[in-house]
Description:
alpha/beta; Rossmann fold; Arc Repressor Mutant, subunit A; 6-stranded parallel β-sheet; 13% strand
Amino acid sequence: MDSETVAQDGAAPTTVSVVIVDDHGIFRSGLRAALGPVIRVLGEAATVEEAETIIGATEPDVVLLDVHLPGGLGGGGAEVIHRCARRGTRSRFLALSVSDSAEDVVAVIRAGARGYVTKTISGPEITDAVRRIASGDAVFSPRLAGFVLDAFGTAAVAVDDELDRLSARELEVMRLIARGYSYKETAKELFISVKTIETHVSAVLRKLQLSSRHELTRWATERKLL
Length: 226
């Protein structure tokens, strides 16, 4: 992330860097124009592949991400988040879509997005949402917040706090190991060594105060992270 955007004492950064990901050029242009002066746009992307490339190259504080995107394996915005997690990207994701269906909301939040708002949002509102996401908050349009609570339960906030202890790579390793992948299978999936996987698993167990892979699987299952 850009060092100029680092905040002190947990406050929102003075300037927040973003990448806009949407397959409609007119919408990207309009959103760029609507963002306040505290938001610095580092680039834009229209497909899953373009998004992965530019996010990896620029490492923005926040990615404004459409849910439905062409390219990749057809997973849209959720696939972008998964791909970036595998690369160890530290950017936070705010989903911005015309869709307000529960399925879309839950899918992208489960993938790792920190918030979800609809495209009816105003310029000042999206600017505020970006700054809040950059400072670590979760942001949802009022109607969509109910979907998140229904899907993840009232423990959602506590789960966020626990997951914030993990890096993007540790989170990806945690999910695969909790699903029953072996160290070797996880290493192959993430294109890293088995020894690196072992190091990440040890860190995950320590940070979550768990003692075994079995406890990790139970922990993740209870929190509906799999």
